[in-house]
Amino acid sequence: MKLTRRHFFATTGGSLVPALTCPPMLFGQDQPTFRVKVDMVVLSFTVTDSKGRYVNGLKPVDFRVLEDGIVQKVNTFAEGNRPPLQILDDGSTKPLVTAQADPEKGGIATDAFVGTNVFVLFDTSNYMYRGFVYASDAIADFVRGLDRADSVAVYTFSRNLTRAATLNRERNDVLQGLRKAVAGDEAALYNALLLTLRDAAKVPGRKVVIVFSNGPDSASMVAPDDVRAVAEDEGIPIYVISTSDVSRDPISTGVFRRLASRTGGKSFFAKTWQKQVEAFEAIREDLGNSYTVTYYPAPNPNEGFRKITVEVRSDAAKKYRVSARPGYRPRTGGA
After folding, report:
1. CA 168 vs CA 104, 112, 119, 173, 284: distances in Å
2. Strands 34-37 and 267-269
3. How far is CA 323 from CA 10, 93, 258, 292, 327, in A?
4. Is pTM, for the whole model, over 0.85?
């Protein structure tokens, strides 16, 4: 049986799309109303020029963020792993300080937005058996090379998900957890990815999920597009490194590309150990050269999918390419 995203969250206690139930209505009793819950949006994106080179050094005034064409007031701005800046009403900026961590007063805890929370989801199913050792080494090299401000978690999966190393900045702890991984059993990639996204969604600040997989999924109960929708709504980019043969597994290839592009991430197809190392290096560069903004959405009657657009205000903007997630669906809550 294949569960929909709504059914999965209703049965597993997820909070993104809660199952709404109402008691029987009596004649003449007012009907219940439901409203959109407005949460802070965390948006990460990269800017590249016509040759694919990262564009660094842009300031908050160089960007305009829109939802469904409605200009948004950006609260904080950060480049790479630098400490975030708070954007004041007059457009000026100042360092974001922990003393202003009360959300009701417009503040956000600084530590939550320094560095990136990286969740690595490692395929340890029997599909990965032959290249298991090389894959583990590539992940270890990636973890060692991350910025010191980044936090890392390593999850492994075959039929079930294992949290080999929970999110932290101690690289030795992460590597020790990684080395305990063993290969075997069938693959339930999309089940594991959904559970990883749920963990990542609980963490404030910027986060990404990196999927390292051979591709085929033989045991999941959820559909990949339902998982992709969760990542879109939570604002979590998914980067995929696939070791499968593109020509032999076109279905997984198409799914991986859609997962990455629709969430603001990227997909890589790397059969050899050297290509896998290059893919991890490309992801590390992407994280180090990205911009991150936060904002509370302006009033918008649209309760469905809201399109996000990031514009660069400069004479050279026509030559720039902004890579970001296309949008999200706001949560709904009962009144």
Report:
1. 28, 13, 10, 8, 17
2. unpaired
3. 33, 24, 14, 12, 12
4. no
Nearest to 60 by CA among 252, 277, 311: 311
Q: Over its length of 335 residues, how does the chain's per-residue pLDDT go in tens digits?
A: 444 444 444 444 433 333 333 333 333 444 444 344 558 899 999 999 999 999 999 999 999 999 999 999 999 999 988 889 999 988 888 988 644 444 444 444 445 567 899 999 999 988 777 778 888 999 999 999 999 999 999 999 999 999 999 999 999 999 999 999 888 788 999 999 999 999 999 998 899 999 999 878 889 999 999 999 999 999 999 999 998 877 777 888 899 999 999 999 999 999 888 999 999 999 999 999 999 999 999 999 999 999 999 999 987 777 899 999 999 998 765 43
Residue entry with tokens 């590539």: 138
- Report the C-alpha gap between 290 and 84 in whole angstroms: 13
- Full set of structural domains in the chain with CATH: 117-288 (3.40.50.410)
Residue 289's CB: how many other CB atoms inside 10 A?
16
For 228, half-sphere exposure in the C-beta direction (CA atoms, 13 angstrom radius) is: 20
Task: Compute the distance between CA of residue 144 and CA of residue 125 in angstroms, rounded to an integer.
Answer: 24
